[in-house]
Amino acid sequence: MKDQKYMTVGELAKKMGTTVRTLQFYDQRGLLHPSAESEGGRRLYTYQDMILLHQIQSLKSLGFSLDDIQNKIEVLDTPQKVEKALSQQEVMIEDKIKKLQNTLSAIQALKVEVSQMQTVDFKKYADIIVNLQMNNEYYWLIKHFDNETWEHVRQRFDKDSGQEFIQRFHQINEDILTLKAKHLPPEDEQVQQMTEKFWNLIMEFTQGDMSLLPQLMKFDHLSDAQNQDWIQKQNEVNDYLKPALDLYFQKLGYDPFKEE
Questions:
Q1: Positive or negative, the Cα torsion across 58, 63, 67, 73?
Q2: Domain edge (last residue) among 19, 40, 73
Q3: How far apart are CA 45 and CA 83, in angstroms?
Q4: Do 46 and 94 fall within a single domain?
Q5: pTM of the full predicted structure?
Q6: I need a surface site. Which of 162, 217, 219, 241 has the fewest CB within 10 A?
Q7: 8 Å CB contact between 60 and 93
Q8: How far is CA 46 from the centre of its chain?
């Protein structure tokens, strides 16, 4: 005992930023027993105990219960075991950092959306958070929908169907821009076929509810400093497709945007 360096429970608590009561509780739970006891009956701890306490504190900060921690910690009596324990902590901490970074990014994005919305709307806030968690890059559009249209979206799509629809919408837009780059006129067969696909996608979105069309038309005039690239690309698609849509509606014999 004379060759071993010991700390009292108070000294260990001070070094590790915890309390004597916490260390006593860990002792009672079987998580961290003192390595020795002085002649006067005082609990004594070693630097190996300090490393074990660090393990416990790290796992606790990662959200593990004391029961979980008790199953994860092991006696650190070889360099290999110490390295293994530290490697496990490293992986768990990196994972937590990643999750915290994602959470921070979501909070920052939501803060931008909140600052741009004209009213307090916790329902939309919640939906923005959900879409951020889904990695939906179009989450910011939520604030531009009126309540009726957004309720339609919420009822119409779940996570999987929403992402699938967005992917198809994005692909059609890219295909339209490809035709635009070829300078194909509105009456071109390829353009008309793509126009039909585009309109069918709109009808799929609205489920034939023509009352939603005026709200969708408002997206031609969006102003959103954070997403100007997307808005510019969408305006290019709309501007190029408008004459083709006019021809398409003439063939159908009606214009849904002009009907009462």
A1: negative
A2: 73
A3: 21
A4: no
A5: 0.51
A6: 217
A7: no
A8: 43
Q: What is the pLDDT of residues 15-68, one digit of tens each?
A: 999 999 999 999 999 999 999 988 888 899 998 899 889 888 888 887 778 887
Structural domain of 184? 157-260
Contact assessment for residue 255 and residue 247, using Cβ atoms and an 8 Å cutoff: no
pLDDT number for residue 215: 63
Q: Give per-residue pLDDT as tens, 133-145.
A: 777 777 777 776 7
The verdict on 127 and 194 lying in the same domain is no
Domain count, the chain: 3
| DSSP, residue by residue, 47-103 | HHHHHHHHHHHHHHHTT--HHHHHHH-----SHHHHHHHHHHHHHHHHHHHHHHHHH
- At 8 the three-state DSSP class reads strand
Find the farthest-apart pair of alpha carbons in the chain and give their distance in angstroms, rounded: 101
DSSP type of residue 220:
G
